[in-house]
Design brief:
single chain, about 90 residues, mainly alpha, about 60% helix
Length: about 90
Amino acid sequence: MHIAMVMHRKIKRNRFKELLDKAYEDGFRYITDSDARAAGGSHSKAHLWDNGELANEELEHLLEIRKWAINNFLLITFEMANLTPF
């Protein structure tokens, strides 16, 4: 293998590592989809309701949104279909 190609690959690997390290420092984490969606999963940063600053507060917030959506499902459905309810 040509020395220039070896050096190029090494530079690319180092740059990629720098990008990953910076992302980690900025609070980004990579978690596999199977970890995030597993039925028995318990990863604190992986569940689908972890958008907020505190996962427990975001869960409560999303539960309120879901409760509202369920309670207003018929009305929302009629509005989306441009129908008059009842």
